[in-house]
């Protein structure tokens, strides 16, 4: 089989739509990894930021400086470095909390969003278990029984689905879900019967990692509160990409990861209202999360320390705070506008390709820039392979949202997920790669 | 990167024109395997023909590599003994872990030698192995192979 590069005249794109807000090329220059080449000299076109973002030099430098100048165990030890480390850690908590309009004391650090969501789900299963022997010591809002319901949506990432399935298995509660429309939006027509008096917790994704849909979380949280349920939002794909204020979202608990927003791996966040956090049973237990320990039992620290057992994620928090500083310098409204323009450009380009079907909203309204698609006659793995051979990095597979794929009758998809360092030329490279894959496999 | 070293003509031909695809009427054993990272699925079934040779049926959905691999395996091993299928499986697994360095034995592997290039694409090795591992499981379920004998 002979490999022919695409002629540029075959480019499927509409011309011109300049990026309205900031210079993505200048941003890109801040990210050392984006200057690398792959597969023998192909410039890297990174379109997999939905999985994890790249990190600017500034974030890497701040993490390095922390280790070179301030590293010590926090919240213990009476020496200068311990104080410096504790100061850096708690400053980071403050900075990251402010980024989402929150107070530092309401922000818990975990290892990733998956752990944050498990922490939330375990507050219920632990309280339910403890209530059998010592009901007075737990908050009854977290105690579940058969007949109670837990509500999610049909577009959840496995990390916001499996922990709730497990909670139901442990307590006898029933899992319900809000279904999807053909367009890939939540079908809210039955909302009032799905979230009803039996509902104790509602956990929904803010922006879908597979469909790109931005959900009306405020409306769903308000409905949850109207029936006395606790509301949780998976903000993994919203906080990195748009301005988010926890109070406007209206949730009781909000979970996200640092590595998708220019921060390092190994840190996640869980924000909660003071009331809810202070009513929750601990998840992991041990050092650093206690108030008093005796041989026959212990009492626990106030949040956030109650939920940060063991040596916490200090360097990661310091570096995530640097990522927040970087994003704030760009401005989150501009980040959202930049991605909105890219999403529009990509949707238009994809719509002009024969045999390509977008899975998720086609209209660039209430949607982010993560765009999934399938190519007729081609498996996503093969599409991804051809793109990769041209230096274009995308994600293929079910994107940890297997039930969502099933809902749309596809085993998996190919996903473009651009970020602040991408521009139209990167989308063009992906679109040309799709044409190349079609011609390589002879499906067009 | 050399795409052609992954997508050999033989592989693409088996992908576009799968051999022996379809389920058996009376399988002795059947195994359903999935690749949890990408959602690819395959069901492989076995029974024996009048002479005692293997009959293989399969159904699945997945990428070119996983589907071509099922087709190649079915064509290669139909009518052969379980011992021969075990020998081929061991050779194929070795080939997948050879990083493209070993010279595959065409006597044993037939068209499956075309998968030698897959070994250089670690993310695709699982795709290539999916049907082979399902076949082993189906043979175990059919009582043709004991668990300990598996590769
Ligand atoms: C919507 C959504 N929720 C949860 C997660 C899980 O995040 P992590 O793997 O960082 O725990 C992800 C990331 O893949 C995501 O996109």
Please write out the topology.
The complex is a heterodimer of chains A (444) and B (151).
Chain A: H1 24-28, E1 37-38, E2 42-43, E3 45-46, H2 57-69, H3 80-99, E4 107-110, H4 113-131, E5 149-153, H5 162-171, E6 174-178, H6 191-194, E7 199-205, H7 217-226, E8 230-234, H8 246-249, E9 253-257, E10 268-272, H9 274-279, E11 290-294, E12 297-300, H10 314-330, H11 332-351, E13 356-359, E14 371-375, H12 380-389, E15 392-393, E16 395-397, H13 402-407, E17 413-416, H14 424-440
Parallel strand pairs in A: 3-15, 5-6, 5-7, 7-8, 8-9
Antiparallel strand pairs in A: 1-2, 4-10, 9-10, 11-12, 13-14, 14-17, 16-17
Helix pairs in contact in A: 2-10, 3-10, 4-5, 11-14, 12-14
Chain B: H1 3-6, H2 9-16, E1 29-35, E2 40-48, E3 54-61, H3 64-77, H4 82-96, H5 106-109, H6 122-141
Antiparallel strand pairs in B: 1-2, 2-3
Helix pairs in contact in B: 2-3, 3-6, 4-6
The complex binds pyridoxal-5'-phosphate.
């Amino acid at each position: 089989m002979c490999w022919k590069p695409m002629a540029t005249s075959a480019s499927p794109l509409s011309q011109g739509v300049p990026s309205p807000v900031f210079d993505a090329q200048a941003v890109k220059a801040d990210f050392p990894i984006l200057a690398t080449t792959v597969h023998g000299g192909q410039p890297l076109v990174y379109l997999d930021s939905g999985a994890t973002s790249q990190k600017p030099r500034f974030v890497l430098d701040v993490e390095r400086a922390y280790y070179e100048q301030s590293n010590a165990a926090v919240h213990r030890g009476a020496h200068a470095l311990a104080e410096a480390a504790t100061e850096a850690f708690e400053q980071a908590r403050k900075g990251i909390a402010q980024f989402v309009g929150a107070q530092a004391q309401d922000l818990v650090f975990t290892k990733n969003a998956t752990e944050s969501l498990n922490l939330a789900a375990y507050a219920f299963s632990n309280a339910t278990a403890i209530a059998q022997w010592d009901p007075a010591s737990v908050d009854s809002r977290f105690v579940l029984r058969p007949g109670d319901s837990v509500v999610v949506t049909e577009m959840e990432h496995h990390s916001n689905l499996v922990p709730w399935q497990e909670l139901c298995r442990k307590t006898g509660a029933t899992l319900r879900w809000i279904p999807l429309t053909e367009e890939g939006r939540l079908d809210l027509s039955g909302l009032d019967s799905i979230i009803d008096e039996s509902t104790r917790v509602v956990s929904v994704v803010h922006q879908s990692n597979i469909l790109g849909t931005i959900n009306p979380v405020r409306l769903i949280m308000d409905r949850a509160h109207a029936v006395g349920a606790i509301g949780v939002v998976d903000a993994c794909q919203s906080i990195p990409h748009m301005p988010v204020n926890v109070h406007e979202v209206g949730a009781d608990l909000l979970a996200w990861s640092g590595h998708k927003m220019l921060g390092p791996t190994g840190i996640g966040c869980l924000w909660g209202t003071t009331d809810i956090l202070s009513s929750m049973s601990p998840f992991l237990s041990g050092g650093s999360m206690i108030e008093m320990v005796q041989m026959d039992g212990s009492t626990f620290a106030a949040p956030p320390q109650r939920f940060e057992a063991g040596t916490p994620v200090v360097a990661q928090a310091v570096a995530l705070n640097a990522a927040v500083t970087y994003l704030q310098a760009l401005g989150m409204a501009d980040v959202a506008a930049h991605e909105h323009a890219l999403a529009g450009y990509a949707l238009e380009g994809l719509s002009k390709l024969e045999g390509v079907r977008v899975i998720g909203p086609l209209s660039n309204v209430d949607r982010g820039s993560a765009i999934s698609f399938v190519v007729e006659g081609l498996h996503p793995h093969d599409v991804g392979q051809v793109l990769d051979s041209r230096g274009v990095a995308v994600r293929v597979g079910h994107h940890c949202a297997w039930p969502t794929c099933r809902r749309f009758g596809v085993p998996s998809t190919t996903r473009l997920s651009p970020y602040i360092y991408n521009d139209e030329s990167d989308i063009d490279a992906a679109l040309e790669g799709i044409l190349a894959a079609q011609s390589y496999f002879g499906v067009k | 990167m050399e795409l052609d070293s992954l997508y050999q003509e033989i592989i693409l031909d088996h992908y576009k024109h799968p051999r022996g695809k379809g389920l058996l009427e009376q399988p002795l054993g059947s195994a359903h395997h999935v690749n949890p990272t990408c959602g690819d699925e395959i069901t492989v079934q076995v029974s024996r023909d009048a002479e005692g040779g293997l009959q293989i049926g399969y159904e699945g959905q997945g990428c070119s590599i996983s589907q071509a691999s099922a087709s190649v395996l079915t064509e290669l091993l139909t009518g052969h003994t379980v011992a021969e299928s075990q020998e081929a499986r061991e050779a194929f697994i070795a080939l997948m872990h050879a990083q493209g360095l070993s010279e595959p034995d065409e006597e044993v592997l037939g068209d499956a030698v075309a998968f030698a290039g897959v070994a250089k694409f670690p993310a695709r090795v699982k795709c290539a192995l999916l049907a082979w591992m399902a076949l082993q499981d189906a043979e175990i379920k059919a009582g043709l192979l004991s668990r300990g004998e598996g590769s």
